[in-house]
Amino acid sequence: MQHAHSKQIPKIIFIDGLPRAGKSVLSGILPCYKEVEQIRFLTIIEHILPALRFKTINKDFAKSLMTTYLNEYCYESYIGRSLNLRKKEQSSIYEHISPKMYLKRLKKKDGTKTINEIKKKKIIFYFKHMTLSQIIDIF
């Protein structure tokens, strides 16, 4: 079976590594760039990769699920559905160079126009985990 969902999000960065390897330092530097979105933590990855490794799901399903979930998550993040407004948390919009940009996006309308806007802009979404060493097998 061929993977049916196309990637909608232009650039995604996954930050992975052992504890104390510098992931948090890097996660604090990246939001200093306007093109880079605020960090996100996706727990679904923690479930998909072991399921794939233990062969309870196949590679095509894992790829389709990851692509669909990342498309949805990035879109919803862009329009403000999943904003973290709690100050001083690593994933808070207030830890980004431009928190007002996120508040302004709350007024965006759903739909194709917004999806096309995301595709045109050079937005980089990034996620931080410790179990991503297996993701290369999927993509």
Order of helices and strands: EHHHHHE
Tell me the number of helical segments per DSSP (H or I, 4 or more residues long).
Answer: 5
Rg (CA only) = 16 Å
Average pLDDT, all residues? 81
Strand content: 5-15%
Secondary-structure-derived class? mainly alpha
- Strand order in the largest sheet: 1-2
- What's the overall geometry? globular
Biggest sheet character: 2 strands, parallel
Q: How many domains would you count in the coordinates? A: 1
Number of strands: 2
Helix content: 25-40%
Unreliable runs: none
Distance between the termini: 15 Å
Q: Could you please describe the fold and organization of this structure?
A:
With 139 residues, the chain is mostly helical. It has one domain (11-137). Helices cover 39% and strands 9% of the residues. It contains five helices and two strands; from the N terminus they run βαααααβ. Strands 1-2 form a two-stranded parallel ribbon. Helix 2 (44-53) runs antiparallel to helix 3.
How are the secondary structure elements laid out?
Layout: E1 11-16, H1 23-29, H2 44-53, H3 59-79, H4 99-105, H5 112-120, E2 124-129
Parallel strand pairs: 1-2
Task: Name the descriptors.
mainly alpha; globular; 139 residues; 5 helices
Structure summarized in a few sentences:
By secondary structure, the protein is mainly alpha-helical. It has helices at 23-29, 44-53, 59-79, 99-105, 112-120; strands at residues 11-16, 124-129. The protein is globular.
